[in-house]
Amino acid sequence: MRSPITIFFVALAATLAFFFEYLPPIRIVHIPFDLDAYHFPLFDYAFQSLRHGRLPQWDPSMYSGMDFLANVQAALYYPGTWLMLLLSWGRQRLSYQSVEDLVFLHFPLAFVLCFCWLRARKLTDMAAALGAVVYAYSGYMCLQMQHFGLIGAYAWFPLGLWAIDQAEERASWKPLWKVAMVSALCFLAGYPPSWVVFAVLAGTYAIVGSTGRVGKWSLAAGLVVAVTFGLVLCAVQVLPAWDATHFRQPEDNYGFGFKEPIFYISYFIPNFFDFGWNVPVETNPAKEYLYLGAPGLLGLGVVAWFMLTGRRSWRPLWSGLAVLVVSLILTMNPYNIPRNIILHSSLLADICRSYYFLAGVTLAASLLAAYGLDEFLRGDAFRGEWIPRRLQGVKPAIVVMGVWAIAEGIRWPEADFAHGWKAIWDPLIMLLVFTFSLFVFRRQTGDLRVWVAAALLVSVGVDYKVFGTYKRFDSSVGEGPRFWPDRYTGMNTEAYKTINAEHVSRVLLGEFGPLPGPTRQVGWRIPQGFDPLLTTQYRELIARYGKFRTDRELEIDPQNAEAMRLFGIRYLVTAEAGASYKKISVDPRFKMVGPNDSYFKVFEYLDAQPPYRFEGGGTAAVRTWQPEIRAFDVNASAPGALRLSEQFFPGWKATIDGQPAPVDRWEGAFQSVTVPAGQHIVEFRYRSRYWLLGLAITLLCLTGLVWWARHGGRASDRVDL
Question: What is the pTM assigned to this prediction?
Fold first, then answer.
């Protein structure tokens, strides 16, 4: 077997070909939705902060300020994020291409780790490679490209299961250091529900074991230690996030599951639901692309055949079957039993999602399919006598694979594929082509075998590509978001420059205005947002001065003078299609900024007040205004209060002339400091309360992890499994 590094680079080259339309010099589409509107702005904010020598502890751009280090989805401590930021260090801005490249990098990573895991289970190279292809390039991975936290965690799952196999084989806890590492990486990738999925699947896998002897409780205990250790290893991220959860109300996000059998049909028929790029997004709501491909279908078919006929002992597959059953139960939520159990814990209800256990279905399918393909390749039961020997040569196989790959490739750009039950013909023909070619591969030796193997993998890759890329769930036209210092797409240049010249006041996004996430990258500060760290105190504040359109999207009436003053709003960005546009355009308190020649309309609120004020007689002027520091020169003719319309968090500390001063709540969600009469310098400074403690714990655990990896396997440390 080639080294994992060599396999990785081969898989990387294949990945670049797989996504060629997303990459230069072609680059006609980009990954849309959450990646460009949510994850990219978070990455770029961290990049800009670090380039300027500042640890991004506070994010003033969303919800009138929020703790950035507590935002797990920023993935600030994920090693892949560090790699991306370091490779981009010489640039002025983080490019969207670099974020997409980071996503694409996880495809070969998932392939290599899955291949090594399957190969370690004594499967042939070809069976392991095809099983890894099912895992890394089939429907689930392509579907989730827009969700970085899912992709980042999912790629590492096989390494954890491989370590469990090693621990069982060696009767030692030593290999479980890899489980601890995977546990940490799954959490640091930015989406805690994916960590929950890994923990549940790894626990299921460990209890059953690779030999199928249920009752490996000592191994399961070691797994609990490893997974928990991995979470403690993330203390630098966990502690700030835990601190922030005290300010938000837990949500019931588990859902009601996917109970309709028709939902799962796309595992077998890739275009049963029409996923063509030109099909409206609203088509087939709540239906997903999950295609397992010809290797998955053939491998699972062989497994099913042998299990039904009892012709083989499939005890080694019990762990895969257990993972599959548990994943389907948690995904389907039968009779709402899983949901009702989870709801007993507000924490689990907040971080568990039925939807994300679909990852376990594909994980189990890759293992089961690899075993089925391995059995098929041995040739004991499927001899292929029905195929004429003159057709079992290399040339017929390569011609058949090439013709079908070309036929699929020709139809791919126009998405010229049938949908509904008529769509069954495409995967059926591919299955027949693949099965025939696998018969031919089995008969070959030497270089001919290598050529057939390469042709097989290419034809399978083409099949995955034509149904899995350049589709409405993972692509949008164009190169993706870009930001310039002097212009904003869809906005008059003069208006854009006027907004950016104001570094203190806030911008209100009206109806049909820009999305909240990307405004973070242009330096705007808005009272709105779209983030799970929306606090309870802020919800209550908005309930008094505005309203929620969804669970996270809120509206503030620009004609509400009290609200405009409280939030320190000076500019409104809306569009002519908005219901309030006509009212604003004739309201004398508003003035349009720049000519009326663009989609986005910018209005200045002429009665605007800054997001701070001094009450009690006197004045306050900005001395320093940075994300983590607000300093003011206060001239108080009498004792009063300096009000700051920035969200209250315990990490905010205040000083008056260098002496500590208590920070009080104002309006339930903002800050206030009582100032005595006279001239004073009042400073607000934010420091995450538990970041340093978390960093110390993380460094200590990292040292422990290195020790575990190097010395944990001594004879005296062995555990009887």
Answer: 0.95
